[in-house]
Amino acid sequence: MRLEPRDSLFEDGNELFPELNNQKISQFIKCDDQDGTFLFVVFEIKDTKNKYQLFLDSGLAFANEHEYVADIEDLESFEIVFLNNQEINKILWFPDGCNSKIDINTKDFEIQINCKNPEIYDSESIITIKKKTECL
To answer: Which of 22, 28, 51, 52 lies 20 to 30 Å from 70, alpha-carbon distance?
Structure first.
């Protein structure tokens, strides 16, 4: 498992953190600024306790991996408890209009970080979480 921060844009493919596939989330936190605008997510992997941060900046997808992530005390942070113990299938990023989007696929949920208006460069980011439905 890597311990150094990545702090970079991934240009050579669309999978982020492939080593996290089949790993379980122990904590998933959504962070907003004081005005309630979504900024980023931080999640911790159960067995390693390493923390990972995903966000969009200037329409580009970024990912950080640290033993810890910078203090979030000055931000509005919300633990999304129903994502705890979810197994990660894949974390992917894609171009989306003039911006990018990040998809986090778990066993039961689809989490997407994208821009409110993908056609406007550097649009405000939003997060959506959808429960997967089973087809019989």
So the answer is: 22
